[in-house]
Every structure is written in C-alpha cells, then in structure tokens.
Amino acid sequence: MALYVLLGFSAGLPFYMFSTVLSVRLAEHGVALAIIGFFAWVQLLPTFKFLWAPLLDKYDVPGFARFFGKRRGWIMLSQLGIFTSMLAMALFPTDTSLPLTALFAVLLAFWTTTLEVAADAWRIELAPTPEEQGPVAASNLWGYRSAMVAAGSGALLFADAAGSLAPILQSFGIEPGWQASYLLIAAGAFVPLPILASLPRQPGCGGGRSASLITGLAAAIAILLALALATAIIGWLVLGAAAGAGISSKTNVTPAVLVLCMLPFLVMAALTPRIRKLAPDAPARASAAIGPYVDFFWRYGFFAIALMGFVAVYRMGDVLALNLSKPMILDLGYTKSEIGRADGVVALVSSIIGVGLGGWMVTRWRWGVTLTIGAVFAAIGNFGFVWLSHQPHDEWLLYVATAADQFGNGMAGAVFVVYLSMLVNPLYPGAQYAFLSGFAFLLPRLLSGAGGQIVEWLDSRGLRGFDLFFLASGVISLAALLFLPLLMRARPRPDDREAA
C-alpha cells in the first residue's frame, strides 16, 4: 500500500501540468478558448495506450530490468520521461510557439500514461481479488490525487506568488511565474525515482544495482531522444496537413476526430460474432499485438459491447468538468491564489475521504450499489459548479464547490478502478486494463476538446454557456446507471487454453 501511494504520486503529479494548469497558463497568455479546448485533446493520448501497452507486458527496458524487474524498469523509464518533458515546458514558459508547447505536452502525457500502464499491470498482479484490490487501489488514488492537488494548487500558488521571490529566483537564472512553477513540479516528479531505485532487487532478477542503473540510464537517454524526435516529426506533418486542408481554430473537427478514434473499437465490436468462434490456437488470439483485446471480446461476447458503453459514460462528467472548470472559475473573478487555496487542503481532504469510502464500499457491497453511489456523487460535484456561478464572489463558496467535486470524483474513481481491474484477464493485466481505461476516457476527452467551442457557441446565442455545459456533464454521469441492469448479468467465459 505504501508503494502504491508512491506510484500514485508519481503518476498524478504531472497530470494537471498538461491539463488543468496548462489551460490556465494558456488563458493567461491570451490563447483563445477554442485553442485551449484543442489542447485538451492532448489528454486523448492515454485513450490510445492500448497501442503500446502490449509492449510493456512483453518486453523489458534494457538495463533497468536486470535488477529492478519488468514493471519497475518501465516505471523508472517513465519517470525520467516525465521529468525531462516537464523541464522542457519550464524552459519555454511564454507559449509564444504553441506547436512547441504542444510537443512537450504530448511527451509529458505519453510518459505519464506509460507510467500508469506499468503501475496498473503490477497492481493487478499483486492484488487479484476485490478484497485485496480495494485497499491497494485506494492507496494508489490517495497518492495520485494528493499529487494532483500538490501540482494543481502548488503550481498556481507558486505562479502567483513567485514575484515576491523574484530576486532569489533570478539569481539562479529562473524567471518567476510559470517557469519557476514548472521547475518546482519537475523537481517533485523526480523525487520518487531515487526511492524506487533504492528498493531491493526484484525477485528472480540478477545483476548488480549499479550496472543496471548505468546501462538503464544510457538506454533511457537514447529512448527519450528518439521518441522526442519522432513525435516532433509526426506533429509537424499533422499540423502541416491540417493547415493545408484549411483547418483552423474555427473549424469543427470533432466529428472527424471522433470517427477516427472510435474506429478500432467499432471494428472489434463488429467482429464479436467471429471472435467468439475462434479456436484456442487461432492467430488472432495468440497475437502479441491484438491477442489481449481479442481475448476480452472472446470472454464476454456481446456483453463486451455493453461494458464498453458503460465505461465510456461513467466518468464522462468528471472529465468534461476537468478542462473547463478552472477557466470558468477565473471567468467568475476568482484569482489564481484563491483557486490554488481551494485546490490545496480543501480538495485534498475531500478527495482522500471520497477515495477511502469508495475503496471501502467495493469490499463490502455489490457492484450495482457501489457504482450507483459513485455516479450520483460525481454528478453532484458537477452540479456544484452551476450553483457556484449563481453565488456572489466568496472564497468559502469556492471551497464548497471544490469539496463536492473532489469528493464525488474520488469516490467514483476508486469504485471504477477496482471494477475495471476485476474485468481483465490476469494473463494480460497491462494491455486489457489499458484498453478499458483508455476507452473509458475516449468520448469524454473528445467532447472536452470541443468544450471551449460549445461554451462559446452557447454564449453567442445569449445562453449561459458554462452553466449548461456543467449541467449536461452531471446528467451524463447519471445516464451511466441505465447500463447497470444488463451489466450485473455479465460473466466472463472460462478460458479454454491449457496455459490458462
């Protein structure tokens, strides 16, 4: 449990820095709301983690794995990637080149996601039952949400207060404001790495600690540079193609992006009747690339389609609120310091209580009850932002809305993580959990990316755009409950392979 508090902290610390904090930073630099909405699509990258998740199940990181093992090796490589990406975002804090900001945000999102894939696979291997998984998942989320609060509130407070520290910071060549803020969080993201490196040898591994670290660091540098170069080239080609096609901030590309992102999942769902008939030695089931995903549809059949519909909707309200909650609160006249204080102790305590209750519920009650309670409290958190917009400017009211949001998100998140963990086949923990958790945030993040355009469109017609947006997001959270009567009858098919 202590280990997973640390791993949750490692994954949660960078998340706000390429999502919520980045949206505030872009807004302060005068970037249009529609462009800020497009930056939310950086959060789509975790949706496609199923593309590289099988690599983490199959291959080791050169060097690191000799002493630290497969899972810890990938975690350590990911932490190096997180640190270097955030350091790059700190070196270019003015956002005068949005493509450069996007490049570093994408790299930060990629390595954060890779860390989560490795940690989730290890968690499922260590805790295979709901009774074991509940406390470990709660520990992971405590660390994750504590780090998110530390990054979110700490970055905003430090960005606002860094002016008073200007002489000290400038003496070290650091500009006060966003550069100092991102450097602070980058330093915090680096802390778990030496702690993990100091842990004992992974059972079954050989080699010495020092040799493993040296060769692992050399391999990590090569991997980080190669990935950064490849990402820059791909991004340059995509942006060039978009400009050539006449796509701008006023272009509604959401339908095209939605179709493109949904295509792999829709193809798999359409092939379900054929998948159900596959023999144990069929190439599709034995494939390292697609075998884990074919296995999910083989085990659950047509229930797999209902399961995917449910996971796509259950956390939608939380994700929709995440990207635009801070711009809305800024629009209400609250300062970064006020938001930072609300995202500090208030958010942390509320989230810890919500996660703890969610982790406790899954060990005591049936899934139908726990999933329903989580969805209801998540919806209440979204409705809280609508309530806040109709209140006078009062920091204490901001605390109430923040507490409701974080409590509901924490509870629903804990229940959801354990539920998804129990759906996967233990033969493919990393790949199948990546598949399900990635799909869970596909539609929400696509809609979140268009959120800025939706709010602007509603405002242009004399409607309260933020109010209607957060009201709809809360209702969508409740809509997930319509799937429960069907899902409570879903049972996995016994594996017919001798190896299982």
From TrEMBL:
Keyword match Transport: yes
Bilayer topology: Multi-pass membrane protein
InterPro entries, alphabetized: AmpG_permease/AT-1, MFS_trans_sf
Protein localization: Membrane
GO cellular component: membrane
Keywords: Membrane, Transmembrane, Transmembrane helix, Transport
Main location: membrane
Positions of transmembrane segments: 33-52, 73-92, 98-119, 147-168, 180-199, 211-236, 256-275, 296-317, 344-362, 369-390, 396-420, 427-448, 468-487
Protein name as catalogued: Permease
Organism: Sphingomonas psychrotolerans
